Amino acid sequence: MESILNNRPALAAEVNKVAEVAGYLWQKGWAERNGGNITVNITEYVDDAIKAMPAISEVKQIGTVLPHLKGCYFYCKGTQKRMRDLARWPMENGSVIRILDDCASYVIIADHPVMPTSELPSHLSVHNYLIAKGSPYKASLHTHPIELVAMTHTKKFLEKDVATNLLWSMIPETKAFCPRGLGIIPYTLPGSVELADATIHELDDYDVVMWEKHGVFAVDVDIMSAFDQVDVLNKSALIYIAAKNMGFEPDGMSQEQMKEMTVAFNLPK
Ligand code: 2HA
Ligand code: ZN
Known about the structure:
Layout: H1 9-27, E1 37-41, H2 48-51, E2 60-61, E3 73-77, H3 83-86, E4 94-99, E5 105-110, H4 120-132, E6 139-143, H5 146-151, H6 162-168, H7 172-177, E7 182-185, H8 193-203, E8 208-211, E9 215-220, H9 223-245, H10 255-264
Parallel strand pairs: 7-8
Antiparallel strand pairs: 1-3, 1-6, 2-5, 3-4, 4-5, 6-9, 8-9
Helix pairs in contact: 4-8
């Protein structure tokens, strides 16, 4: 079958990473039904032949103007599509879109007219923000990690950096591989402009942001790295819960041990 991925190994590798991560999300129980979203900026892999590809959808409005996305291309999970299906058939459960020159609308160009995620405006707003600040980050991930979400069902973990410090102290890797910690956004209606704006605000300080009682939003250079940041945080949550299940409050690494880590790994905070 004709696919935009044919004879484009670098682009195919990016989409295959999305498929691999989608499989992990399903296996971990973080992606029930159509839960979660993935959007990847693939503009760097776009050649003249892709630029010449005709639209296979009508022109669709984003609902907002995103000036830094002019001429950008994204791979997006399809709306109502399942991560477990995307894992096996990424181009049947997602599509490639082109942002048009008005920076306010897009068309689908490949492989099939699969409508992008309902959260497209918020994902694209995040990508617009990342480009504006010169970030190398190309991938955004929304998922429902069970134990991290469970932690947001109590007030104490919603205070700034309380969850971050607890999670960092459970195992040294977590601070090393999620060095900016976990931002927290109080419960806000899914898909709302308020939630998108709050997410962008928190991404100034964090790569992973928690939406209270819902899920996380993570960004990184590629989708595998965005997944890894969520995975190390959730691993810490599992260690915390395992200790609690053994009947005690875990001590956590000491402040001295945390400081030593920060210096040894040259971490930002
Ligand atoms: O798109 O998880 O919160 C499915 C979701 C939205
Ligand atoms: Zn969700």
